[in-house]
Amino acid sequence: MNFQDWYTDRMDLYRVQAVRDGALTRHERVLLLEGVPCRLYQASGSALDMGQTAASVRQKDWVQCGNEVDVQAGDELHIRRGAGLGRTAAALRAFAAEPNHFFEPFGAVLPGLAHQEIPLVQEEWLKGGIQDDASGAGGGIETGTGTTA
Coil, helix or strand for 37? Predict the structure, then answer.
């Protein structure tokens, strides 16, 4: 058995990096890795929580990938289910918590099991249809912090 055979999903990894803009330094999310083989696991499904102004969903999932992938806490991950099988599904957006590395023991009975498991922080606020603002710029992704990205 080899975990690489189980990686049917693909993820793109974004990290905040400092970008020089003339004399100013600003921070922005930059795509670091694209199409990384992985597998998403769901720990528990959660129901839709209804609030006065919005509905929210909280899920406790984790993603598994090879130890060679540089994932750090706070990285933004876009995970596409079934992409390794040629399937298309909407990308799941989540943030990485601290990765847990599992290394191959010397002389393992079942080789190829080294991997890392990354708990995901995923809290999205769901809105109805996003209305364009007066400038026509449109909405954005509503984040769990009450801001629009």
Answer: strand
By DSSP bridging, strand 115-126 and strand 24-44 are: unpaired
The DSSP code for 84 is G
For residues 114 and 118, what is the distance between their CA atoms, to the nearest angstrom?
14
For 64-91, how does the pLDDT look when each residue is reduced to its tens digit (9 = 90+)? 999 999 999 999 999 999 999 999 888 8
CA pair distance 65, 62, nearest whole angstrom: 10
Nearest partner of 10 among 71, 60, 65, 59, judged by Cα: 65
Residue with tokens 């629009």: 148
Contact in structure between 17 and 76 (CB atoms under 8 Å):
no
Helix, strand or coil for residue 22? coil
